[in-house]
Amino acid sequence: MGVAAGHRLGAEAAADPAPAQTTLTTLTRGLEVLEVIASSDGTATAKYVARVCGLKPSTCYHLLRTLRALGYVVRTRDGLWDLGPQAGRLSRRIQLRSGPSPELAAILTGLHNRTGESAYIGGWFNHQFVLQHLIEGRQSLRVDTLDIGYTGDMHARASCLSVLAFLPPEQAEVMFTDAPLRALTAATLTTEASLRERLTRIRRQGYAVDLEEYAEGVCCASAPFFDQQGTPAGSLTVSAPRSRFDARADFLVTCVRESAILASAFLQGGRLARPGRNTPL
């Protein structure tokens, strides 16, 4: 939620004529507290939350009591803090609005089952490209910063680059205006020139590969799918540790490309059918 929230707030600030100094510090701190609790899986203590958020204990307890009164957090019998029912309701509403259709979710499940690797689907929500759903692989691999709703670091993620490559160049460039191309690993592209060259190559080959550009030791293959107007509507992606990805790269690329073709066929024809077949799935 941290980086994603930052990008959302940045976009809103650009559209909102109100000066940046009108930001409410208390609200910001409350959201930071909620974020820390959400990422702690029910193990957060008040002292831990205060330390991570850089708050005085008294301030942290005041925020926790407020969030608890509103139902966004609860205190367990062990004295730990966890998400409350109101946070769950909010999450469900967001996922219903921003998540993929059942048909696209089924394609994602098929991609995961076929590869055994972590599989992701991304798409547009409120003019931003967001991670809509993920299914973790059967073998241990977890990139902690990636979660549903994430929008950050598009320059380093194959799932985003595979879509940006098929947008009009001026539209893709606008999405990077004033966005720092920060180096997440030694392999991350951090210049506009290298990014443009990369997008040209992706557009030519029809898919994107991330070789430890977003997270060290993790590689991804991603392919875009398109709506009836031929506009990139989203992407399907798989990720794997570098050693396993190197051994299966061709297979993983084939899987994401075939799944993306299936997704495009659904968006353009209104039903799930394997390419070249008339029988719906």
From TrEMBL:
Keywords: DNA-binding, Transcription, Transcription regulation. InterPro entries: GAF-like_dom_sf, HTH_MetabolicPath_Reg, Tscrpt_reg_IclR_C, Tscrpt_reg_IclR_N, WH-like_DNA-bd_sf, WH_DNA-bd_sf. The keyword DNA-binding applies. Residues 24-85 form the HTH iclR-type domain. Pfam families: HTH_IclR, IclR_C. SUPFAM superfamilies: GAF domain-like, Winged helix' DNA-binding domain. Residues 86-274 form the IclR-ED domain. GO terms for molecular function: DNA binding; DNA-binding transcription factor activity. GO terms for biological process: negative regulation of DNA-templated transcription. This is IclR family transcriptional regulator. It comes from Dactylosporangium sucinum. The lineage of its organism: Bacteria, Bacillati, Actinomycetota, Actinomycetes, Micromonosporales.
